[in-house]
Amino acid sequence: MLGQLIVSSLVVGSIYALLALAMSITYKASEVPNFSQGEMAMISTYMTFVMLSSFGLPFYSAMLITIAFAFLLGLLLEFLFLRRAKMPTPLNLIVITIGFQLMLYGLAGWKWGSEQRQINLPFSESKVIYQNDFFALTELNLATLAIAIVVLIVIYLLIQRTKLGLAMKACQQNINASKMNGISANRIMAITFGISSVVGAIAGVLVAPILTLDPSMMWDPLLKGFAAAVLGGMKSLHGVVIGGLLLGIVENLFGFYISIEFKSVVAFAIIVLVLYFKPSGLFDKHYLRKV
Amino acid sequence: MRNLKTDYFEDLQLFKDGLQLFWSVVFLLLLFVLPFFVKTYYLTIINLMAVNVIVALGLNLLVGNTGQISLGHAGFVAIGAYTTVLLLKAGVPFIFALMASGAVTALFGILLGIPSLKLEGPYLAIATLAFGLAVTTVIGRMDFLGGRMGMNVPKIGLGWTGLKYDQSLYYLIVIITVLCIIATRNLLKSRIGRAFQAIRDSDIAASAIGIHLTKYKLYSFGISALFAGIAGSLWALYLGFINPTLFNFILSINFLVIIVLGGLGSITGSVMGAIVLTYLNLQLEDVVDIPVLGDLLLRFSETFMTTTGVSNVSWFLTGFILILIVLFEPLGLYGLWLRTKIYWKRWPF
Question: Do A271 and B126 touch (CB under 8 A)?
Fold first, then answer.
């Protein structure tokens, strides 16, 4: 039983990890926790849904279109709203993302209503692929884990091995110095939001078969993803991934052995406790500001 | 008009000059005679606005003046509301129940403040969010608090005023709101208020000139929670029925939106933000009923969207207005008001 529990925790945890990664990428670049991340993922998931059921496209081309759409959505948020802010203090930018979130939520409710829909991915929830004495792995579980791992590796390679990643890191460290070295900081920022939106959208598509597809489906996963990012340390990329997996495990074990109703609360309580001892999360260095 | 202040007591004065005093008195008189001229429905709207004003005042002290952030204020409102209802059921007079809810909530505010002292930015946001979530979950689990089903709020004895219940409730809420506004204003002019602002501008510099950071941050959390508790107490009376899902995360976000919309760190801003956003939320709920636009909207929905989901337009518009305000007037409605005033004062220059 414990083995099965850990497998399902890792599946949920890997989704949290993707959302946490998405939040972390934009937080590092702009110091803004993007509250519209969840709704952006939700709209992108509806895009997959429309492509699959209305247009009858095969899954992989639907996924490609979704990724392109999510990228554009991220660019749009940065280009239309965040860049235009007159006084870009963190709180003002947070409120812009909340506004964008409300807009997307309203739009989705307007277009698709609040009824719950089923999204048909080509991975079945009941077909068991691998089984031993300790756990069974269904097709959906395996696909979720595999996709999450692939996305994590791609993002890692993108940031560590490409010119774009180098420019992103430069902008995160010192935006003025990178401008002086000929990096177009605005463009890099927009691309950063685009990439983060794509990561979020993939998480959204993976969440949809576990929950059901409706405009408020990302509320809970997003809060968990945000909390996971904070647990690992918002600015450390490997930290947020470990934070996501940890959160999934803690939450599921507590939910199974003690109380299912309090599982979210306890997850958050543990995070607050961790923050009390390590104010910048588990894996991030805590810098003391000087005058 | 003089803008310079020559001594300290001038800064403490509630009214800058006779003109301001005159308009304030006129406004208060207007509020006083209002119940005899308008329908009960409008009184309930004003009550809701007033309750939001109180929460906004408290939250603005914390966010706008001290520079901390809170995503869990709905939790404080919930604690205030439930304390009041419990005490009212036990037969305690309302005025004591109100004070007790304020005190209990302030205590919870200080408790939340302790782990939050070291945190800032998103870390503080998550800690406060966790608090808000925990409060509603725990309340939903307690049977003597009505659990998920919620409970009815007993009507309080306001018969001695000789007015209808709605009218006397209106007077109660409005009087407490005005008192809260004056209290906040005086607090900000005191040593404590100036310490808050020093912490917001630079906490390290503030501690270097002898401001006890721990003490004043806890004060800020406590006082902010106190206001939320009072508001929760009044909100329970106004609604007549409470359950845990009323105090969800969206409510906390709504409070944050109110103060950013109104203007951070300004009392006028809190008041304007609460009034405008409450009105907007109520109006946008039946956006289809607007004469010409409503028809156009329906036709548009039929062609491109769905007619069943047309009420969701209100979310879209609220978000859009919010973004526009932050983009074009970062100081909120208060900034807009200030700019208009300065423009006319200097006209034609």
Answer: yes
Domain count, chain A: 1
ipTM of the complex: 0.86
Looking at the structure of chain B, the number of domains it has is 1
CATH code for the domain of A179: 1.10.3470
What is the dihedral sign for C-alpha B234, B239, B242, B247? Answer: negative
Note whether residue B155 is domain-resident. Answer: yes
A243 shares contact with chain B (CB less than 8 Å): no
Is A289 a member of any domain? no
Rg (CA), chain A: 19
In chain A, which residue's Cα lies nearest the Cα of B298?
Answer: A110
Q: 3-class DSSP state for residue A118?
A: coil
Residues of B in contact with A85 (CB under 8 A): 326-327, 330
CA closest to B319 among chain A residues: A99
Write out the residue range of the structural domain in which residue A197 sits: 2-277
DSSP letters for B205-257: HHHHTT--HHHHHHHHHHHHHHHHHHHHHHHHHHHSEE-GGGG-HHHHHHHHH
- The answer to whether the pTM exceeds 0.80 is yes
Q: Does B300 map to a domain? A: no
The answer to the question of residue A59 being in a domain is yes
Any domain includes B299: no
CB B56 within 8 Å of CB A78: no
Residues B59, B77 contacting (CB under 8 angstroms): no
Q: Give yes or no for A101 touching B (CB within 8 A).
A: yes
pLDDT digits (tens, 9 = 90+) for A176-214: 899 899 899 889 999 999 999 999 999 999 988 888 888
